[in-house]
Prior knowledge:
The complex is a heterodimer of chains A (104) and B (557).
Chain A: H1 3-11, H2 13-46, H3 63-99
Helix pairs in contact in A: 2-3
Chain B: H1 2-21, H2 23-26, H3 32-55, H4 59-64, H5 71-82, H6 85-98, H7 100-127, H8 133-136, H9 142-176, H10 180-228, H11 233-242, H12 260-274, H13 278-281, H14 290-322, H15 350-399, H16 406-430, H17 436-460, H18 466-485, H19 488-494, H20 508-524, H21 529-536, H22 538-547
Amino acid sequence: MNNELVDRIENNPKYKELVSKRTSFGIKLGIFVLVMFYTFIMTIAFNKEVLATTIGDGVTTIAFPIALAILVISFITTLIYVKRANGEFEDLTNEIKDDVKDLM
Amino acid sequence: MLKILALISMVTLSAFAAGDATFEAVKRDLNVPAIIMFFIFIMGTLGITYWAARKTKSASDFYTAGGGITGFQNGLAIAGDYMSAAAFLGVSGLIYLKGYDGVIYAVSFLVGWPIILFFMAEKLRNLGKFTFADIAAYRLGQKEIRTLAAFGSLSVVILYLIAQMVGAGKLIQVLFGMEYEYAVILVGVMMIIYVTFGGMLATTWVQIIKACLLLTGVSFMAVMILYHFDFSFEALAVQATQNHTSSESILAPGGFISDPISAISLGMALMLGTAGLPHVLMRFFTVGNAKEARKSVVYATGFVGYFWVIITIVGFGAIAFLNSAEGSQYFVDGQLYIDGGKLFGGNNMASIHLSHMLGGDAFLGFISAVAFATILAVVSGLTLAGASAISHDIYANVICDGKAKEEDEIRVSKIFVVVLGVVGVILGISFEQQNIAYMVGLAFGIAASANFPILFLSIYWRGLTTRGAFIGGFIGLITAVTLVIIGPIVWVSILGNEEAIFPYKHPALFSVTIAFISIWFFSKTDSSQRGKDEREMFRAQNVRAETGIGSDGAVSH
């Protein structure tokens, strides 16, 4: 990739839009997943008795629905990300490619 | 092809002969329906290998199946790589043994996926070609980075390979009453045949078929278990607590992850390690375009997440069923669990015995065949990743300066498949007694310390230079490997020493931190002209990573 092409792309407002939108979207979702997971791990590390709380009068503990929730939420966040990446971000990328077609 | 079949039948026959001799000691009947199911499967996968071998022509075909796999197929294949023997046999065995502690593994194994998708997958695809070293070597020194990446990949691959070998050996031992050593050798031979003849196309297809069969089989087990308890998890949990010596404590985090450092370290290893697994990273290059690559991660996360839910049910089901009075036939000498009995083949075999209790001989045959295919497919993928680290990174790019002929590169790769097969067999035999889920945890720990920091920093940090990556990367790798060797498992259990030099079972917290700090330090202090040039090149790399402009993907042009 030559410098002219790099300059052209970097100065393209669509490129700036793509990078800033996608980066902040990724970071937001990423932080959400990390906070969720490390809250779980830290609870196990420092205060695991909390997770031994039983549900109602049964023997099943709240640790099970929590684990299930982490699995489901992890899946949903990937779905949310890909929906936007394959729609909005993909379109932006294609527009950028179109704009620099003459240099490729 | 005839030669291969002859070879297999020879090895199988000799192993059976050996098995007969020890049959008295094992005291289990040869299970004919199970064995028939098993051989049907093996013949089927060999057929696929033969078909794939005829279609595999270029290096791109061999490494990445020519980029012609769809997102859905690739999602299944990624899930297939993930749902390894360690996942299926190891985690269900761990839940059988320790209860909820096994579930913690399951959860941690999945959380790495969204993180990879948000921060790595896209950029990896836009920068890479065959192996993950292509990415790190984009603007850094080819030779240094490829040498480092090859060592990192190999360490991960070998450790992961041992875990799968142990699972396969135990499985065949239980099923055929064959000696453990012969069982491991048989797996090694099968694996070498699959990979050398079929390459990535064959392993991808075996992986896809196996993923479907595994999900179906384990779903069936979970439904059978829940059916028995009128679809009440509470009823299953009550039965499980009554059948386990630790009673109610199996339903909450327990002593397995005893101290905070181990808990954090394990969580870190499993999460970051996913982003450093060479055989999984390779799969981003087997699809035609970025859109399909992203979709494949969603499919993979969905399948794997579902898999962990049903494995949890199977694990607790194993406690409820096998540890009951009716389960005595699955224990050595018929001694019941409550009387201190031991399962045939150890706790890793819990789900295999459970399949027999739930569905009889035919279902046992089905589950065993699927479990074996699981191992074979994962082991093949791993070996391929390990061999390409040597042929593509070391041979083609370091030794031949990128001027190697394609045929030679593939030949080197095939030779190393054989070498890795032999190494896997030898180590598989010496690690016989280890829980395989734990072994995989260690492989993830090394991936997180050796591969992940380099990959992450080369994508995101402008200041990274060859010097920093090379020195820092090796410090991270050596730290991780050393801490594993002087840790409790290898130092005490395998080498037979009295006390571990390094007290924690999982080194990731320390080794990942050390890797990041040393890479940062040696890049920061690098004032060479070369370092300056490399920082300059970050701009172009970043534009390509963000847009994919200039990348040709996995398809050869």
